[in-house]
Amino acid sequence: MGFPQLGNKYKEKPFVLHTHLMTEKVQTQLEQIKLVILLFDQEIAEKVAKAYKGKRLKDVFAKCWKLKKAKGIAIVSGFGIGGPAVATTIEYFRLANIGQFIMAGYCGLLPASNRSIGDLFIPSLSVRDEGTSFHYAKESAYIENPEGKLTNVVKNALRENGIAFHELPNVSTDAPFFISKKEINYYSMLNVHTIDMETSSIYSVGVHYRMDICSLLVASDKISENGEVHPNKEVASEAIIQALKALVPSLQSYVINWFETPKV
Hints:
Radius of gyration: 18 Å
Mean pLDDT: 93
Shape: globular
Largest sheet: 12 strands, mixed
């Protein structure tokens, strides 16, 4: 039996609509928002919101701040973890005609990786070891980075600020607490360096809806050869904060240009 049970589901259109969630009040609050930064770390989300005079929006899904000092950008956090949570969050904000999303989160380093905790990654592809992506994209072993304009803006902003990042294969899983030695060896054969729960899901959602999607990961822990996990969230958190400091000004310019460019 394949998954999803209805083959080629990705070719279908949504039948069950959730427009009732996007009330007029919520729609009004989200006007002028063109780009959403999804942050798993709520503490970092609150710091970024405070730095850019973010206004907490009421009755909006999860925790959402509209940045007053960065026109057109919102920070969203508190939506959960995993492919279903991120896909659902994107689907919700898509109801407000928002079509650009950056997911900034943590990932683990596989034993064979020679990268370090605190390193940034924009995955070149993500092996699909989770279920959500198969609802949105044709069945395959992995899904490549959609490489839209937004991803290029992120890459250029990081380079201009002297912040290094890696474009290497990732694997997304639904079961991060159940990873076998056989899986580790298989991923190593594919040159996979990092593991998370969401990247292949958001890549597939982006491809399906032709949205501008970017996954920005920072290594927060390293899996040793004997299977032990060695974390350093403090280093990883600082790396995300520094990356966002570099990104937001460039993203603001990008969004402003989006407002000012005539739409065909």
